[in-house]
Amino acid sequence: RQGAPLVTVLMISGAVGSAICADLGSRTIREEIDAMRVMGVDPMRRLVAPRLAAATLVSVLLCGCVIFVAFLCGYMFTVFVQGGVPGSFVTAFAAFAQANDLIIALLKALIFGLLAAIIACHAGLSTKGGPGGVANSVNTAVVTSAIVLFAVNIIITQVYNTLWPSEIAG
Q1: Where does residue 33 rank: exposed (0-12), middle (13-18), buried (19+ CB within 10 A)?
Q2: Considering only CA atoms, which of 73, 100, 134 is closest in space to residue 126?
Q3: 3-state class of 2 per DSSP?
Q4: What is the DSSP code string of 67-109?
Q5: Could you give phi then psi for residue 34, rounded to 5 degrees?
Q6: Phi/psi-derived region of residue 166, left when phi > 0, alpha when psi is between -120 and 50, beta in every other case
């Protein structure tokens, strides 16, 4: 419930956020965004909306991939390194993992992708100061999105745990 979304936070804020911000920032300093507005093309619709959709989709897929790889690595470590029984690993995993864990992890990833893209787009479209300004905007976007996404992760986790407390078998 926590590991996969946190890995997704770091990858989305770093890789996706920096790429989006650098692209939009360089377009801003070359005045392409202003030229689009003069030609009557809405940059929000043409440039920002597809990036928001793509970042959201990629973050959900990335989170699913991280979950699968984590399960596979745990299985391989248990079976091949520790000499465990494959059936007991799967049984123990099924006893502790719930469908809600997967749903909340993917929901978090969806929110993280959307927020990271919004922060990166805002930083890129407000770039000033030439190529150095693009670098500063990228740095700002990555750091801001990482901090915001960690905070949102904590908030979502606390709200979820408050509304649906986990049942501890005793």
Answers
A1: buried
A2: 134
A3: coil
A4: HHHHHHHHHHIIIIIS---HHHHHHHHHHH--HHHHHHHHHHH
A5: -65, -40
A6: beta
Buried b (16+ CB within 10 A) or exposed e, 79-108: eeeeeeeeeebeeeeeeeeeeeeeebbbeb
Q: What is the DSSP letter of 1?
A: -
Tokens 């989709």 label which residue?
57
Structure confidence by residue, pLDDT tens digits, 3-22 = 788 888 788 888 889 999 99
pLDDT beneath 50: ranges in the chain: 169-170
Alpha-carbon gap, residue 167 to 170, rounded angstroms = 9
**Domain chopping of the chain, boundaries:** 3-163
Picking from 43, 20, 25, 32, the residue whose alpha carbon sits closest to that of residue 130 is 25
Residue 95's pLDDT is: 84
Which one-letter amino acid corresponds to residue 169? A
Q: What does R_g of the chain's alpha carbons equal in angstroms?
A: 20
Q: Contacts for 150-154 with beta carbons within 8 Å, 24 or more apart?
A: 150/6, 150/9, 152/111, 152/112, 152/115, 153/2, 153/5, 153/6, 153/9, 153/108, 153/112
Q: Which two tokens stand for residue 124?
A: 């890129």
Q: Which two tokens stand for residue 46?
A: 């043409």
pLDDT of residue 52: 95
